[in-house]
Amino acid sequence: MNQLGITGDFDVLPTIGSKEFIAWLPTVLESKKVLYPKIAYPTYLVSAQLAHAEHQAVDIDPNQWPASDLLWVNSPSNPTGRVAPLSELEAIIKYSRKNKSVVASDECYINFPATISAPTPLSIFNAAAGNNENILGIYSLSKRSNMAGYRAGLVVGDSALIAKIREVRKHAGMILSAPVQAAMIAALGDEKHVRVQADRYAQRRSILRPALEALGFKVEHTEAGLYIWCTRGEADMDSVAFLADRGVLVTPGHFYGEAGAQYIRVALTATDDEITRAAARMHE
Ligand SMILES: Cc1ncc(COP(=O)(O)O)c(C=O)c1O
Question: Which structural domain range is residue 264 located in?
Answer without folding.
Answer: 192-283
